[in-house]
From TrEMBL:
Domain Peptidase M14 per the UniProt entry, residue ranges: 6-314
GO cellular component: extracellular space
Positions of the catalytic residues: 278 (proton donor/acceptor)
Protein name (Swiss-Prot/TrEMBL): Carboxypeptidase
Native organism: Rapana venosa
GO process annotations (BP): proteolysis
Function: Extracellular metalloprotease that contributes to pathogenicity.
Keyword match Signal: yes
Coiled coil: none
Length: 314
């Protein structure tokens, strides 16, 4: 059986995905996304659920999950591996069965494999992708979560390529955002929820992330539903006693950010349940991005519990 309490390299994560497809051919398809990264890597995604046809299609509602957009946020992919493996292994357990019989899960476990590999080999605290601009020192990378076409370049971003929140040259200039966009559009008619998995701070963010006190009259049409569902989800995230809080980015962390995935997804398909998880730990003092691997399982348990709560309330 699989050891959950270790962090895996990009090659190991891809091998885990392949292993699932081999072990559960009725439940899992692993596919390549179209846009290769700057270092020519292929980004893979999974389609998970029953009654997939030979192309991996079904008529079920889709829950779309994207993770490891930010290279240093290792706990996100590690927790997701726990979640997916637990769902697959316990498929016949009534507690989890509806997750795979009533829904199709479309999951990108590592949106940014170049950045992830860079955190293993060069710099553990790297955040962005590896967009190469010039041999100018320090000018490397775009913040993938600022590159979507929603209020692009307006708030919580930088035009400077040396910045950790550099938005890139134009909306969807990056292969990583192009991949998420194209996969979202492929499944758009069936998507009921879009989930972006990040770390850390123990938060559940709902749109809009771009609003500040000046623009806070702009709210999603489904704000009430987002809040009601989000409240249930943060209660479920407290599964192991950790406090999670829910709100917009500005409400919770005091900064707005444009060009992010959850805002783009909700604007593209109004009415969906679009959230950004900020997983463990709560703060820098509890390990920050370097959270010990011993916390992967409990973090995965609380993430799984909140996902089960969400689907039971859809
Ligand atoms: O700043 C970010 O991109 C996210 N926080 S992080 O510390 N993981 O970098 C929050 C973004 C919230 N908004 C969207 N996901 N759109
Ligand atoms: Zn992040």
């Amino acid at each position: 059986s699989m050891d959950y309490s270790v962090y895996r390299t990009i090659d190991e994560v891809n091998a885990v995905m392949k292993g699932w497809e081999n072990s559960y051919p009725q439940l899992v398809k692993m596919k390549a996304l179209e846009h290769k990264t700057h270092e020519s890597r292929t980004v893979y995604y999974l389609e998970i659920g029953t009654a997939l046809d030979s192309n991996g299609n079904s008529n079920k509602p889709v829950i779309f999950v994207e993770s490891l957009t930010h290279a240093r946020e290792w706990i996100t992919t590690a927790s997701l591996i726990y979640v997916i493996d637990t769902l697959l292994k316990n498929f016949h357990n009534t507690k989890f069965e509806s997750a795979l019989t009533d829904f199709t899960w479309v999951v990108i476990p590592v949106v940014n494999p170049d950045g992830y590999d860079f955190t293993w080999t060069q710099n553990r605290f790297w955040r962005k992708n590896l967009r190469f601009y010039s041999s100018q020192r320090h000018c490397l990378g775009v913040d993938v979560n600022r590159n979507y076409d929603i209020k692009f370049g307006t708030v919580g971003v930088s035009p400077n390529c040396t910045s950790d929140i550099h938005h890139g040259l134009s909306p969807f200039s990056e292969p990583e955002t192009q991949n998420v966009r194209d996969l979202f559009l492929q499944f758009k008619a069936r998507i009921v929820s879009f989930l972006s998995v990040h770390a850390f701070s123990q938060l559940l963010l709902h749109p809009w992330s771009y609003t500040t006190p000046n623009t806070s009259t702009e709210v999603p049409d489904n704000l009430q539903q987002l809040k009601i569902m989000g409240n249930k989800m943060i209660q479920a995230l407290a599964y192991n006693g950790k406090l999670y809080r829910m709100g917009t980015a500005y409400d919770l962390v005091g900064y707005a950010a444009s060009g992010g995935s959850i805002d783009w997804a909700l604007a593209e398909k109004p009415g969906i349940y679009s959230y950004c998880f900020e997983l463990r730990p709560q703060s820098f003092w509890q390990g920050g991005f370097m959270i010990p691997a011993t916390e992967i399982i409990p973090t995965g348990q609380e993430l799984l519990n909140s996902l089960m709560t969400m689907i039971q309330n859809l």
